[in-house]
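User: structure tokens for this one?
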Amino acid sequence: MPLSFPRGRARFAVAAAACALALTTLTGCSDSGGGGGDSATKSAASPSAGGGTQVTIDNFKFRPAALTVAPGAKVTVVNNDTTTHTLTATKGASFDTGDIAPGKSATFTAPSKPGAFPYDCTIHPFMKGTLTVK
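Assistant:
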């Protein structure tokens, strides 16, 4: 059986609705960082309600990927992705959020001694960042 397509105004309405749906979908996938670099480097650490700092996981990236905090600061990690992630120190087991389910968050305490502490997601080791304690 051949397909039939609407004619006239009905055809235009179907095409307009399809375009609007496509644009809405594409806009939702956009990082809106304006291009010209990794938006993770553009993000600033944002204080959380408890006076600590927040890292957001979005599109398989830590945002910000480089974060400086005071010794013993509380760091909240929010997972905005659709899969589980961790934020885990790669040396010395200084901190580890454990598994963070999509849409959930976890909090850890930064080390008390100053230094640079690289971290990754143990599930997705290509996701990397550095916590600097000063």
